[in-house]
Write a structure and sequence with these properties.
This protein has 402 residues and is an alpha+beta fold. The protein contains 16 helices and 13 strands. The longest helix is centred in the C-terminal third of the chain and has 19 residues.
Length: 402
């Protein structure tokens, strides 16, 4: 047996004053989480499908000059297998079972209701209204002769609430009058450029029905297997959910057809010399969406945050100079968005190899491409703390594109 790890969320943590690696499954095929002691966790590098346990032990000892007990690695393999974290028949069977249940459900259940925000519609309405009433943003008039766009954060509401309120209050008419909404959200764990679902999204206000005819047309040009390979990530991914709640709130609970799309990493374009502008899959998907938007009041929502910097994200602590540099980099991106310039937006990120870990690269770029000639109006900006020492931050902004 040559064990191979499935794609997992891997995070270092401290538990009872000892260092561990936390393993979680973004697709939630299994709800188990595993804590692996940090010294043992290094052997996970050999869980690549090419090494049996004996070979792992030999390679590990040669590299680290440490002898691992064979039974410890065997127990790790058994725990990973039971948690469906290995690529094997058990995980495939479990995935098929979970996927079938997800697709048969009447809608996608809100993953964060009752935790990230109130699960009761009346309580949620009061929370979001409080944010809106404290905002000085003004509603913008909308000309529906072409699609309209919104950039919304997807950070948690307590930290990003003011920016959410600023942009959604500014985009109130667009949200209220839209006849079709295309939702483009960061896929925090996916490598595929586009991940689709035919499942509808529920909020505490009701259900936003997915336009499955448009999803079918997208799947036809992307390929069914690739388009739905990571569909289960829709269950737990927060990027679409948090903006869908705001959209539904601004519509006072009225439904509207949506096309929920998780957008994967653009890292390949950062390193291989290619550009997203030349990618035929992106062009094909955008062509389908542009055709679907024809003749409808269409709102395109990019769910994305900006920078993620500091020790919480593997970087150096931020001091005053670093914060000024960060703000200048954000201002460059915001200027490109205000110009509606997808190429300049992406070039600004690739030039510095995305050193600020911009979380909304794909949804923002795709929104700018889909809208074509447009101008953006900024609505809100915040620097949100990301650790207790205030040496790590996440930056967010809002934008209305017309």
């Amino acid at each position: 047996m040559n064990p191979k790890l499935r794609p997992l969320d891997v995070r270092p943590i401290t538990h009872e004053d000892a260092p561990y690696i936390l393993l979680r499954d973004p697709q939630q095929i299994s709800e188990h989480q595993l804590l692996v002691p940090q010294p043992l966790a290094a052997v996970l590098a050999y869980f690549d499908g090419r090494h049996a346990i004996d070979a792992m032990l030999t390679r590990f000892e040669a590299r680290y000059r440490i002898t691992l007990p064979a039974d410890a690695v065997a127990q790790l393999v058994e725990a990973l297998d039971e948690a469906a974290m290995l690529e094997n028949g058990r995980a495939e069977a479990r995935r098929a079972e979970v996927l079938d249940a997800f697709r048969r459900a009447p809608y996608r259940q809100p993953a964060l209701a009752g935790a990230g925000y109130p699960g009761d519609g009346k309580a949620l309405w009061r929370v979001l209204q409080d944010y809106l009433e404290s905002s000085e943003s003004a509603e913008a008039p909308i000309d529906w002769s072409k699609p309209v766009g919104v950039l919304s954060p997807h950070i948690d509401y307590p930290r990003g609430g003011k920016v959410y309120a600023d942009v959604w209050k500014h985009a109130a008419q667009a949200a209220r009058e839209a006849e079709l909404v295309i939702l483009l959200g960061t896929d925090h764990y996916g490598g595929e450029l586009f991940t689709l679902t035919r499942q509808s999204y529920a909020t505490p206000y009701g259900v936003l029905p997915t336009d499955t005819a448009i999803v079918d047309r997208l799947a036809a040009v992307l390929g069914e297997d690739e388009a739905f390979a990571g569909e289960l990530r829709h269950r737990g991914e927060h990027s679409l959910e948090l903006v869908a709640v705001w959209l539904h709130h601004m519509r006072e609970g009225r439904p509207v057809p949506v096309v929920p799309i998780l957008t994967g990493s653009f890292h390949g374009f950062m390193v291989n010399g290619d550009t997203p502008h030349a990618d035929p899959r992106i062009a094909a998907a955008l062509s389908v969406l542009a055709e679907a938007a024809t003749g409808k009041r269409t709102l395109v929502i990019a769910s994305g945050d900006l920078a993620h910097v500091g020790p919480a994200f593997g970087g150096a602590p931020l001091d005053g100079a670093a914060r000024r540099t960060l703000r200048a980099a954000d201002d460059e991106l915001i200027a490109a968005m205000c110009d509606g310039d997808a190429g300049a937006f992406f070039s600004s990120i690739r030039r510095v190899h995305d050193r600020n870990n911009v979380c909304g690269v794909a949804p923002i770029y795709l929104t700018l491409r889909l809208l074509g000639e447009s101008r953006g109006t900024q609505a809100g900006y915040a620097v949100c703390p990301a650790d207790d020492e205030d040496t790590s931050v996440v930056t967010v902004t809002g934008m209305l594109f017309r």
